[in-house]
């Protein structure tokens, strides 16, 4: 017999064997499909014949979750945020993760254009997919105001979201379009400070990594030498509007925060903003960019959390050796804010 109803027994999700309850569950599933279709994620609809009803204590009347198989967990139909099962949700809620560049992402980038390596600081679309899957549902609008070569746009394409991107440097903007031509009308070659002029629609979620102050202009001779030798860019641009060219820390913070304050007005109520940044060092002194930005943006947003992105496959440089303490900073803060 196909089981139409599951419950939790000793921390395990197992089928209910009672025939009467299964009949009741089958009826309820048909009713859900008829009356609440808009609440059901597409991937459940596509496999509806395999879908079962779930309630942890085995109460059909109260059951409001569906599953396809017990290992993947159940999806709660009252979930307003995403299309994840409880199991997937909890997995993502860990406050840290380790992520290193993936071969499959680099391959995708280079197949589109060998020039993608020109950009000195990109993140992985696969990493961003995880955030998009958590903070949105299919078809919703996601904004990256520092879109670079379009990694967030690729993540949107892969997850069925609508990507909105802003990038100052025309060369990187062109690469974004080449990677995701479907977002031709929603990726802009603009200064993000002008975001209000773009007349964007309501955005469900924004995720971005801004310039980490002017670190690239101060990067080591080796970094510059190696990249120049290969013909790659050593900074984003020479443009005055490029936030990476602002030498004064407080001014940089103010201009960056203003862009995120403008995004506040575009975000839907309850929508989330994730900013990926690092604390950085200049002439031996630490500038807590992530912490300063968290505090500054809290003037408008509610700071919800930090999620640490750790890279454990980057070589260690002998900074400070043999006379002074200087760490290799290999973690970034994914700061999570909410429009409340
Ligand atoms: C850390 S990179 C983001 C890279 C992107 N996440 C990716 O994976 O391609 C920051 C980007 O911000 C852009 N940028 C700097 N100032 C800007 C501004 N005022 N408006 C829009 N983009 C800007 C830079 O050109 C750079 O591409």
List the helices and strands and how they pair.
Blueprint: E1 5-9, E2 12-15, H1 19-35, H2 42-46, E3 52-54, E4 65-67, E5 74-76, H3 86-92, E6 96-98, H4 103-112, H5 125-135, E7 141-144, H6 151-159, E8 162-167, H7 170-179, E9 187-189, E10 203-208, H8 221-229, H9 249-266, E11 267-277, E12 280-282, E13 285-287, H10 289-297, E14 302-310, E15 331-338
Parallel strand pairs: 1-3, 6-14, 7-8, 7-10, 8-9, 10-11
Antiparallel strand pairs: 1-2, 3-4, 4-5, 11-15, 12-13, 14-15
Helix pairs in contact: 5-6, 9-10
Bound molecules: S-adenosylmethionine.
According to CATH, the homologous superfamily of the largest domain is Vaccinia Virus protein VP39
Give the quaternary arrangement of the chains.
single chain
How many domains in all? Answer: 2
Total strands: the figure is 15
Roughly how many Å is the radius of gyration?
23 Å
Fraction of residues in helix = 25-40%
Task: Give the amount of beta strand, in percent.
Answer: 15-25%
Given helix and strand content, the structural type is alpha/beta
The end-to-end span amounts to 48 Å
CATH architecture of the largest domain: 3-Layer(aba) Sandwich
Q: Quick check: average pLDDT? A: 94
Major sheet: 8 strands, mixed
The CATH topology assignment of the largest domain is Rossmann fold
Q: DSSP helix count? A: 10
The CATH class of the largest domain is identified as Alpha Beta
> What does the overall shape look like?
elongated
> Element order, helices and strands?
EEHHEEEHEHHEHEHEEHHEEEHEE
């Amino acid at each position: 017999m196909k089981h139409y109803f599951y419950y939790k027994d000793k921390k395990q999700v197992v089928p209910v064997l009672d025939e009467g309850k299964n009949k009741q569950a089958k009826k309820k599933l048909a009713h859900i499909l008829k009356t609440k279709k808009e609440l059901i994620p597409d991937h459940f609809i596509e496999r509806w014949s395999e879908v079962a009803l779930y309630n942890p204590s085995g109460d059909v009347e109260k059951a409001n979750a569906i599953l396809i198989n017990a290992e993947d967990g159940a999806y709660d139909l009252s979930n307003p945020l995403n299309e994840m099962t409880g199991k997937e949700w909890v997995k993502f809620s860990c406050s840290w993760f380790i992520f290193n560049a993936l071969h499959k992402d680099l391959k995708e980038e280079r197949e589109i254009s060998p020039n993608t390596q020109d950009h000195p600081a990109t993140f992985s679309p696969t990493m961003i997919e995880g955030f998009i899957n958590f903070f949105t549902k299919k078809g919703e609008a996601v904004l990256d105001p520092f879109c670079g070569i379009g990694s967030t746009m690729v993540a949107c394409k892969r997850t069925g979201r609508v990507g909105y991107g802003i990038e100052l440097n025309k060369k990187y903007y062109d690469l974004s379009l080449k990677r995701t031509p479907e977002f031709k009308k929603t990726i802009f070659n603009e200064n993000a400070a002008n975001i209000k002029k773009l007349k964007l629609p309501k955005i469900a979620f924004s995720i971005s990594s801004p310039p980490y102050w002017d670190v690239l202009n101060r990067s080591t001779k080796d970094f510059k030498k190696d990249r120049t030798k290969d013909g790659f860019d050593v900074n984003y641009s020479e443009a005055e509007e490029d936030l990476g060219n602002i030498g004064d820390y407080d001014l940089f913070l103010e201009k960056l925060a203003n862009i995120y304050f403008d995004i506040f007005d575009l975000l839907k109520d309850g929508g989330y903003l994730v900013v990926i940044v690092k604390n950085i060092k200049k002439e031996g002194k630490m500038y807590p960019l992530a912490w300063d930005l968290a505090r500054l943006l809290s003037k408008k947003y509610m700071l919800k959390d930090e999620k640490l992105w750790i890279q454990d496959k980057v070589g260690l440089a002998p900074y400070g050796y043999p006379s002074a303490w200087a760490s290799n900073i290999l973690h970034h803060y994914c700061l999570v804010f909410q429009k409340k």
